Amino acid sequence: MYAINKKDVPSLMEKVAVFAGKEIATRLDMNNSDDFPLDIWKKMAQEGLLSLGIPVKYGGAKIACDTLVLVGEALVNHGHNMGMALSWIIHLLASGFMIGKFGTPPQRAEYLPKMADGRLTAFLVSRENRNLAVTEMMKLDFLRPSPHCMIRLENCCVPSSGKLGREGTALEEMARPCRALEDALLNGPVLGGICRQMELMLHALRKQGVTPADDVMRGLGEMETWRQTLRWMALEAAKRMEERGGKSESETLLMSFRTMAADCESLAEQVMERSGIGMDGELAAMTKDIRRTLELLRGADPSRQKKIGEKIIVRKESNEHIKH
Prior knowledge:
Structural class: mainly alpha
Helix content: 55-70%
Shape: globular
Mean pLDDT: 85
Distance between the termini: 64 Å
CATH superfamily of the largest domain: Butyryl-CoA Dehydrogenase, subunit A, domain 3
CATH class of the largest domain: Mainly Alpha
Low-confidence stretches: none
Order of helices and strands: HHHHHEEHHHHH
């Protein structure tokens, strides 16, 4: 494939929106199904969505992190399902980041073309290894139909050719940066979910046939201003993540995004209660997915905020006008 430049972004977004509307949004069963739709996954590969972020020489397309956020937003806003977007992001992390960045040339040549084609999303320990145990799929009531399971490696011999990255560096060089990238990319589906949630709320309000009360109007206006601000924050955090020295700024934006998104969800609940909107069907499923995703993303924020507090409390005061 090729590198996706800024001038290509509008056409890419249109392509994603059309695909999501045609192939994902029309599958109304997915919010209540534990069966992963492999037919849609194969179509995503055919559209080039699974090759984004994979090096060009292995059949992929170079793409900026903030553009991936926009793709994730479009997939959910037009596809009406956060679970498929989650599986797509995990695929990108495994292929473009883990293997694309840390794999040896033989590993990249073996795995990446298959992952770009949607034929493989696996670990460098072969699934056929008899000492690798994969449990049955967990039945979760959110982010469907993205599959979840547990794996157990017991007395599992891995050849040296299966080692990924430099020895002894997996935590600092791979796991932690991968989690930060995952947080940044998941902002896209959260944004798309909020967009779709607002569309469903507005549709329900219009069906009531009366002009909403002033407090409901103010709530909707506040939600829209927050949504636009959240979009800027998500894109800016993704941009800074790719800049040298931008890690701290990106982390701050990501935490602020999650806090504001949670506040936006609280406001959405208030608007629905005040206006009498019934939260069922797609609106209920989308709202649950947004909230559970934010809960998972915010899990480590208290410890991160504590570390920031510990840093600034020992910082030398720069304001000479403070009197004691």
